[in-house]
Design a protein that fits this description.
Number of domains: 1
Largest sheet: 4 strands, parallel
Number of strands: 6
CATH architecture: 3-Layer(aba) Sandwich
InterPro entries: P-loop_NTPase, Sulfotransferase_dom
Radius of gyration: 19 Å
CATH class: Alpha Beta
Strand order of the largest sheet: 4-3-5-6
Domain Sulfotransferase: 75-311
Distance between the termini: 42 Å
Organism: Amphimedon queenslandica (Sponge)
Keywords: Transferase
Protein name: Sulfotransferase domain-containing protein
CATH superfamily: P-loop containing nucleotide triphosphate hydrolases
Order of helices and strands: HHEEHEHHEEHHHEHHHHH
Strand content: 5-15%
Structural class: alpha/beta
Length: 319
């Protein structure tokens, strides 16, 4: 079981002393895996919906309820990603755009909670503008099909090789301690990881890039041209911010600034992870080379040609 001091840590990292839905669920998840370690022959457990593996404790019925019952508003904003593609980074950018480039005292997961682990009625009293993060694929998006939605959606993708390596390091808490990279790599290819096949996920969102309420950008774009990408996000959300405010947000959302900001770095989670597996690890382009074999790299290139070349989705692997 998770010790009392771990449970109490939520209070020290939430400005008003309340557990956010994200942290409440994460606590339960760590507790579940601690109690069930070694009791299941599957390295990653969960239920499936439409062929997509859901994280432990999220039920297919929860996803259906969010899709069918959530009432969206014109001011709602979704940050949608496959895990480890710059989700928290983009959440923090949106939060600072809302506040005009100044911290407002809210944790990023309080300002834009993880909607996938909440219930529709829990969001009714949330003041506008509401922001949410989701890792669900397009066809399972909370609130229904974005084509018929009043909300706005920012989808951030990342080159698949870096995404896979980042997910491997992030997931070690939930994996057998001796699981080698090669095994996890095969799980990623088969889609036997949370939120399903990475290529299907990216395709599902990218083909809707021309919708007026959908903005699609890449992690690499944010990394290499932060100022202009943040300005693009700001304009998309309807905030005509001055360049000096955009510059402030750019500085505040740099990797080093965010890593030192307890309102944005999810450092409360690091104590539950094995050494070297912190939430914010490197934030670089090209780390895939540390684990990928030449054969694996070539295989990914071939899969991309097969699954994504027809929609024009290309990736940046250069630092």
């Amino acid at each position: 079981m998770v010790p009392r001091d771990v449970k109490e840590s939520f209070k020290t990292h939430s400005p008003d002393g309340k557990k956010t839905p994200t942290r409440d669920w994460t606590l339960k998840l760590f507790d579940f895996h601690e109690r069930n370690k070694g009791q299941d022959d599957k390295p990653i457990t969960g239920e499936y919906i439409d062929g997509v593996l859901l994280p432990t404790l999220i039920k297919p019925g929860d996803v259906v309820a969010l899709r069918q019952e959530l009432k969206l508003r014109e001011t709602d904003v979704f940050v949608a990603t496959f895990p480890k593609c710059g989700t928290t980074w983009t959440q923090q950018i949106v939060k600072l755009i809302w506040s005009g480039g100044r911290e407002d005292g809210r944790d990023v997961d309080e300002a834009l909670p993880w909607i996938d682990v909440t219930k529709p009625h829990e969001l009714d009293d949330m003041p506008s503008p509401r922001g949410f993060k989701t890792h669900l694929p397009y066809h399972l998006c909370p609130g229904g099909d974005p084509r018929q939605s009043p909300a706005k959606y920012i989808y951030v993708y990342r080159n698949p090789k870096d995404t896979m390596v980042s997910n491997y390091h992030f997931s070690v808490k939930f994996l057998p301690e001796d699981m080698p990279w090669s095994n996890y790599y095969k799980m990623m290819l088969s889609g036997d990881v949370y939120f399903g096949n990475i290529f299907d996920h990216m395709r599902g969102w990218y083909i809707h890039k021309d919708l007026p309420n959908v903005l699609i950008i890449s992690y690499e774009m944010l990394k290499k041209d932060s100022f202009n990408m943040i300005k693009k996000i700001s304009d998309f959300l309807g905030y005509q911010l001055q360049d000096d405010v955009i510059a402030d947000i750019t500085k505040l959302t740099s990797f080093e600034k965010m890593r030192g900001n307890e309102l944005a770095n999810n450092s409360w989670m690091d104590k539950y992870r094995r050494e070297g597996a912190g939430f914010m690890r490197k934030g670089v382009i090209g780390d895939w080379k540390s684990l990928f074999s030449e054969e694996e790299s070539i295989e990914i290139d071939e899969i991309i040609k097969e699954k994504l070349s027809d929609i024009g989705l290309v990736f940046d692997y250069d630092p």
